[in-house]
Amino acid sequence: NPSPVGSNVIQQSPVISPEITQSPTIEVKPEIHFHAPPNPTTESTSALADHLMAKVTESEGRALRIQSLEQEKAALEKTIEDLQKRTGPKAEDALQHLEAGDPEKAKALYRELAEARAKEGEAANKEAAEFYCNLGALAFLDSTEEAMSAYAKASELDSQNANAWNRLGHLQFRIGNLTAAENSHNKVLSLGNALEDRSLVAMALGHLGVIARARGDLDTAENFHKRALTINEALNRKEGVANALGNLGNLAQMRGDLDTAEELYNRSLAINEELGRKEGIAIALINLGRTAEARGDLDTAEDFHKRALTINVGLSDKGGMAAALGNLGNVSKARGDFDTAEALYQRTLAINEILGRKEGIAVTLANLGTLEMVRGDVQKAREFLVCARDLFVEIGIYDKVTKLDGWIADLE
What gap in Å lies between CA 389 and CA 394, rounded to an integer? Predict the structure, then answer.
């Protein structure tokens, strides 16, 4: 007999770090619709970036919440501003296509500029690296691999470019390469210390904490997040404070200290509400829902997750929607409503597969496996759990591998 439902759940838990929010996603393969802005020549940089970022949240494989889309938008705005300053037919053509939602001409222009500068030798490497960063910001709209390649080239040309290392680290984490991501964020940390840039240090510490947590090294993760919190408080970086509090809350919850977790989540929620950060509010609500569920208060948990789902629907944040849906599936399973739980898990799984998010896929497969355990279908349960285990091995999240090995052994 499997252990109780509540103990056999791998939570769909959004993790926030200085610039990011990691949350899983909803819907079957979404269609992509682009409409050129009514007056693209006069549209503001910010509005154009918003228009283009819709492509990230709707297109196949782009809505991963390894980091906040706010940071991606900032990188895109910088690229748009640079493009708007350029003259000549190629730049004008690139901007016109970009305003219509097609980044290919702009990518081609920056690839041409970057390659030309790189050929000029070491003196031009810094400028070439910036061009590759611009290419990476544009490539993020349609291709993770292309974006990662561009940022890798930028960091190769200019090893002191913290932005290139940071972006590269995000994308490496996104595809499940934790070791490479750790190396990239350690480079950012080193640069931040060398430049005495405390905001850069805090950002790197937060991301290193997320990586340590993913590996199950909670003590190391806690150390990173506490250091990030101290720096963000000293700098009065409220968003960074909210994120660090949320990350520390996740660690407390993983250790079973629900009172501390709830306190930290509520503090994070209050700051996000003060800042009007809807994405941060939704994450805090999901985390509070997980705490309520862990206490057995399923009605409160459901209310938190539904509120988060409503916010994420309004934001067109499919990553956030999947996080809420996955947790609603956990609530349904805890109530014994297995059919509803299965439907919610399948919706979450479909989107995580669309997004190519291996951790989200593994989490949902594990939850489907434990659902089949309580239903008594040993064969289906084993299939789900083994697939989940293999994905966690591939990613390098070994604490969950150990947990799944135990569940698989129980089936025997």
Answer: 9
d(CA 329, CA 365): 12
pLDDT single digits (tens) 91-103: 899 988 888 888 8
Query: Long-range CB contacts (< 8 A, 24+ apart) of 93-99?
Result: 96/40, 98/48, 98/52, 98/138, 99/36, 99/37, 99/40, 99/41, 99/43, 99/48, 99/51
Q: State which of 63-77, 137-151, 290-304 shows the largest mean pLDDT.
A: 290-304
Q: Which residue from 56, 64, 2, 3 is spatially nearest to 32, judged by alpha carbons?
A: 56
Residue with structure tokens 């730049």? 91
Q: What is the DSSP string of 115-155?
A: HHHHTT-GGGHHHHHHHHHHHHHHHTTT-HHHHHHHHHHHH
**Long-range contacts made by residues 107-115, C-beta under 8 angstroms, separation at least 24?**
107/135, 107/138, 107/139, 107/146, 109/83, 110/79, 110/134, 110/135, 110/138, 111/135, 114/153
What does the radius of gyration of the chain's CA atoms come to, in whole angstroms?
22
Tokens of 207: 């991301």
Residue 263 and residue 289 in contact, taking contact as beta carbons nearer than 8 Å = no
Nearest to 375 by CA among 345, 355, 400, 351: 345
Q: How far apart are CA 247 and CA 229, in angstroms?
A: 10
**312 contacts 294 by C-beta, under 8 angstroms:** no
CA–CA gap between residue 297 and residue 299 (Å, rounded):
6
Length of the chain: 412
52-56, Cβ contacts within 8 angstroms, sequence gap of 24 or more: 52/76, 52/98, 52/101, 52/103, 52/141, 54/316, 55/101, 55/141, 55/142, 56/140, 56/141
Identify the three-state secondary structure at position 397. Answer: coil
Q: How confident is the model over 247-252, as a mean pLDDT?
A: 95
Q: Phi and psi for 48 in degrees, rounded to 5?
A: -65, -40
Residue 7 bridge partners (DSSP):
none
Express each pLDDT in 191-217 by its tens digit. Answer: 999 999 999 999 999 999 999 998 889
End-to-end CA distance of the chain: 10
